[in-house]
Amino acid sequence: MPRGLSSRVANKSMGEHRMSFEEDALKYHSSGRKGKIEVVSTKPCYTQRDLALAYTPGVAEPCKKIAQHPETVYDYTAKGNLVAVITNGSAVLGLGNIGPAAGKPVMEGKGILFKRFADIDVFDIELNSQDPQELVNAIRLMEPTFGGINLEDIKAPECFFIEEELKKTMNIPVFHDDQHGTAIISGAAFINALELTKKKAKDVKVVFNGGGAAAIACAKLFVNLGVQLKNLIMCDTKGVIYAGRTEGMNKYKAEFAVETSSRTLKDAMKGADVFVGVSVKGAVTKEMLKGMGDHPIVFAMANPDPEITYEDALDARKDILMATGRSDYPNQVNNVLGFPFIFRGALDVRAKAINEEMKIAAVHALAKLAREDVPDSVSRAYGGKKFQFGPEYIIPKPFDPRVLLWVAPAVAQAAMKSGVARLPIKNMDEYKEQLERLLGNSKGLIRNVINKVKNTSTAKENSEAISHLPTIVFPEGYSDKVLKACQVILEERVARPIILGNETNVRQKIKELQLNHLKDVEIISPIKSEKFGVYAKKYHDMRKRLGLTYVEAERYIYDPNYYGAMMVHMGDADGIINGVTQSYSEGARPILRVLGKGPGEVAAGLYIIVQKNRVLFFADTTVNINPTADQLASIAIDSADTAKFFDVEPRIAMLSYSNFGSNRNSDTTKMRDAAEIVRRRRPDLIVDGEMQADTAIDPNIIKELFPFCEIKDGANVLIFPNLDSGNISYKLIQKLGGAEAIGPILMGVTKPANVMPRYTDVNDLLNMAAITAIQCQTMKTKNT
Description:
Blueprint: H1 5-30, H2 48-54, H3 60-68, H4 73-76, E1 82-87, H5 100-118, E2 121-126, H6 132-140, E3 148-151, H7 158-169, E4 174-176, H8 177-197, E5 206-209, H9 213-224, E6 232-236, E7 239-240, H10 251-254, H11 265-269, E8 274-277, H12 286-290, E9 297-300, H13 310-316, E10 321-324, H14 339-348, H15 356-369, H16 376-381, H17 402-418, H18 428-438, H19 441-456, E11 471-474, H20 480-491, E12 496-500, H21 503-512, E13 522-524, H22 532-543, H23 550-558, H24 560-569, E14 575-578, H25 584-594, E15 604-610, E16 615-619, H26 629-645, E17 651-655, H27 666-681, E18 686-691, H28 693-697, H29 699-705, E19 717-719, H30 723-735, E20 740-747, E21 753-755, H31 762-782
Parallel strand pairs: 1-2, 1-3, 3-4, 5-6, 5-8, 8-9, 9-10, 11-12, 11-14, 12-13, 14-21, 16-19, 17-18, 17-19
Antiparallel strand pairs: 6-7, 15-16, 15-20
Helix pairs in contact: 5-14, 6-7, 8-9, 8-15, 14-17, 15-17, 17-18, 18-19, 19-31, 20-31, 22-23, 24-25, 26-27
């Protein structure tokens, strides 16, 4: 290839990629319904009565209540969960003053992030004015509508004036995210960077490049975190902001004018410990980095291109700790880690403002969270990449669901402590559970189960309480996922794990994964166990009439899955969970062979399907290929009892492609017969069928076409005629319907035992551990 051609080809390729992305972005915003948002009703409006309640005359009632008691506006309207995202388009992203209309796509995007990460509703408002006093007057008049104001993309120094004036007169939170969001996230990163480099805030020399809203807010926060003002140099487009400078100055920059002989960014960076860039692409060179002190901390946050590229920075300094504003490099300083959760906490205590105490609380919550073990769900969101606190992971990832659970409570607590909360939270644990439900209804469902475990055991918040928790065996001790799950299970005090595997190897993995809660966990190597011979003999006695020799029994017990099942069978453990590293059938086989089915029981798998407004129970989804009517009746009864366990009153539908005899053959008759058997065995249960799936879950179909049906309000326990239909249905509704699936719960077995699918993550294992633990406690209660 001729010299220079390769670079031209590469440039052409990059240009084509850029063009493709630009076209995709335009298509994303313009295809289908224009823009990115819509307003959705939260109340039904399908009938004349609905209309009367929603508007006239019904709407008059809340109006009168609010007129008499203005604070009840939070009870009868959406104000308490509604934020205005407001701009005049004067500083949009890196595009400059492009005007309010051009800034609207960004504001819509901000609204999506509020909703996605904290379930906060947003109206985006673009104001056509460059006059800061006009903006203050307009925004101030919006207070009756909103629970909070998020100012966005307004240029400095006007943004400072606008926020200050609004805070003086408004009685709801006002927050300029360009300032404080960037400051809070970079502040958390700064705390952890100091920790890793063994430096102290009071000693470090910090250089800022940028004199706008973000830079000044970051600098103020860094000073609050312990940086001495004399050790902080700020630069703008005119160079160093030094004492006595007059060109390009304003009162906000003047706060950071220091006595220094440095006049350029290059001068300022000599010997510096920390560089914070909120400026422009290419502002920093390799030579500047080489002049910094040992183990330099560099936050090059200009977007979309940093002050120096990540590659150039690492090439210049091998000892660097670097963060950028980009998602394709480690340590992205992303404002989405802040504003949704800060507003969530502020709104939930009905705060009058977002003050410094609340911001600092958010900083420390984020910094602490980054030091925690990272769940598998976060790794999956980032292509399977593993994260661990260190130079390439100093702040949490935006898709870490725990950010909501750490930041919002910290902010709410700080609001209460500092006196700006008008609706203090009485029980912080209950509040955290409420937040957990925002992450998905399944979180709330499982949290109730975990609370049951804690309430029905003698567990208390002390170390000796662990001995009273149910013991659950995990045969796959060589799995990182299982070990991480065991750590969380112990942290939550859900159960006492027993891990099977080579103890030396498992201990080494625990050390590598930094799972400190597992330092005293019981680890058993089956072949070295004193119970090995006992279990082998017992298993041989159980299976010898089926052709099993003693030597074969020993070989089976050597398998941790069989050993673990024998532990439960012999009463040396309360329950077992496996399947993470094997197929479902391989995991289920030892359990069914060792523990077996209860008298008259049918082993079957049940999935709990959690949708936004309902919970459904699907069975059988994992075990029986083509069950008989009698088997289906047993499955239905067990499923109904499981639903009751989750505080759901069961209504059972025996599903088919036929509605009450519309098609007559052996398949449909089987489902009808199964319903009759359930009625005979358990007259206390509501059951009907055979019926089609839409009939089962839609009360209107039953009301109009089948008023004789015993299920009036829609079924919630759905029994499928065969394994094909059950398995296919739960996977389709999970993947296409956006439902959450918990399970499968193994029913019909003599002792608590569950088999997980191979794609299980740590959270799924925690869920199943909670379910298994309460099964253990329930069984103990029955036997005493």
